[in-house]
């Protein structure tokens, strides 16, 4: 099994005719992803690497079964693109775009919740179930199929941890980058619940960072509900200066809130193994 995506997942790419959209359409096809359509207003009738392009999601949906959408449009266009996907009940929406206005992200999150669809991102590399499928922009060759699930706020650290695991002969079930923005469609607890029921996943790695309360909420969930699988966590940004944003829009410690120390304390109290380095992460993930 896997979570969120599998070999049968049928994907559309909103923004497929753009430079990045076209490039990643090709890369997804090379990974044997079932990309059924692209969507770019005014480009209906074109094709990208053999994939038909439609003006709207509704037009694509009339011709194809769709399980997921990858949104790769400029920040100002994300809200309308996401609204269109939500209104057409696309079950999984992955928003790659960075610098999406927070207000727009809030609207998207609330709309998705009301519609019963799942949003990953914004500001994410997406989701991959190695050897099966991906809805994202990660290089598939550094990931390998196995039994370790990864939940991460950082795309770069998702790559690094997965590639290091692969090098050590440890494969992954599904890797989910929830994104680095303050407002996310899906957070740690949501993915932990999915991994809990996934027979392929034996161990879960959480890669957190300073800012926000997602890691503390995950610790609270594990502490209150219990968790049947081993969880190993790493928190990035321990030495970040207070008040200075580090990389992601959501990675900032302000007025003592969102510190690495607070996150580590909460995770430890929940019985989660917290490591100091990525090398140590590899050593305890067996």
From TrEMBL:
EC assignment: 6.2.1.5
Gene3D superfamilies (UniProt xref): NAD(P)-binding Rossmann-like Domain (3.40.50.720), Succinyl-CoA synthetase domains (3.40.50.261)
InterPro entries per UniProt: Cit_synth/succinyl-CoA_lig_AS, CoA-bd, CoA_lig_alpha, NAD(P)-bd_dom_sf, SUCC_ACL_C, Succinyl-CoA_synth-like
Residues in CoA-binding domain copies: 4-100
Native source organism of the sequence: Calderihabitans maritimus
Residue numbers binding CoA: 17-20, 43, 96-98
Similarity comment text for this entry: Belongs to the succinate/malate CoA ligase alpha subunit family.
Subunit structure: Heterotetramer of two alpha and two beta subunits.
SMART domains referenced in this protein's UniProt entry, alphabetically: CoA_binding (SM00881)
CC annotations in GO: succinate-CoA ligase complex (ADP-forming)
Pathway noted in the entry: Carbohydrate metabolism; tricarboxylic acid cycle; succinate from succinyl-CoA (ligase route): step 1/1
UniProt-recorded name of the protein: Succinate--CoA ligase [ADP-forming] subunit alpha
Functional description taken from the UniProt entry: Succinyl-CoA synthetase functions in the citric acid cycle (TCA), coupling the hydrolysis of succinyl-CoA to the synthesis of either ATP or GTP and thus represents the only step of substrate-level phosphorylation in the TCA. The alpha subunit of the enzyme binds the substrates coenzyme A and phosphate, while succinate binding and nucleotide specificity is provided by the beta subunit.
Keywords (A to Z) from UniProt: Ligase, Nucleotide-binding, Tricarboxylic acid cycle
Any coiled-coil regions, as ranges: none
One biological process term in Gene Ontology: tricarboxylic acid cycle
GO molecular function (one): succinate-CoA ligase (ADP-forming) activity
Entry annotation: catalytic residues: 248 (tele-phosphohistidine intermediate)
UniProt enzyme class: ligase
